[in-house]
Amino acid sequence: MLSYIIRRIFLAFIIVILASLLVFLGMRFLPGDPILMLITNNQFQDYPEEYLQELRHQHGLDKPLIIQYFDWAGKILQGDFGISILNQRPVSEEIVRRLPVSLYLGTLAFIIGHLLGIPAGIICAIRRGKWLDTVITTWANIGITIPNFWLGVILMYVFGLKLGWLPIMGYTSPFDDFWLSTKQLLMPVFCLIVPPLAGVTRQARSSMLEVLHQDYIRTAWSKGLNERAVVIKHAMKNGLMPIVTLGGMALGHIIGGGVIVETVFNVPGLGRLAASSVISQDYPYVQAITLLVAVAVTFSNLLVDIAYGWIDPRIRYG
Questions:
Q1: Residue 30: pLDDT over 80
Q2: Counting CB atoms within 10 angstroms of each CB, which of 73, 78, 210, 273 has the fewest?
Q3: pTM
């Protein structure tokens, strides 16, 4: 098991390096010049080219790409994500301020979605063809196709504008005002819950149906075990292995998976910062956030691989 974990950690390290390189080069190859975002069109006509070159030199954009990359990577290893081109503030300070917001929303959606989705899928599999299976499966199929931005707009219109029950947008820390924070988060968290809830329900139902037709399950039934014992002790361990994969993917997107939702509801998280930074071509912010998301996804996949090796020992030798 130890050698299996070491191999997976080494592969994860290589993936993080490649991801950082792709993030860096991807931003540099985008069309446009971020320096021009600092000045207006009139100022661009007034300022000489020497001044623009000086601005590029201040932000290190006049160096060869390979030098820029190693400078950037070296500072990241020291915890320095650089300085914003537009507001001249340390990127790490803004990330530290916004990261807890995204983690709070994403973690709530992840936990609630899986706590509801797994039992719902198991119930559908056990009651296959019954009215309960039909209702849950129908709602799961609808939920997996609903766009987040459309759902968010509908919720804002109904519960915010028409009924006036919930605030339309904004964010308040639960440590400052728990009740107001709860009301502000109901709609964004619901939008984040719907896709994973629907996906987990469908996958759990499909996996459990496949397992329930295996010979060892029939043997368990023939021994006279009750339904609860057959499902919990025999079917769930093998039937929920694909859920580990889905859970790992969702875990990796907790940090940056709420870009659309945070933008729609004006939540000051990393997703909204990433969207605004892409539009303004603020390289340091986009690079830092994208790298954080890549590291989170890689780490979650590493946890999935280790969990697979623990659940099924045969995988360790694959």
A1: no
A2: 78
A3: 0.75
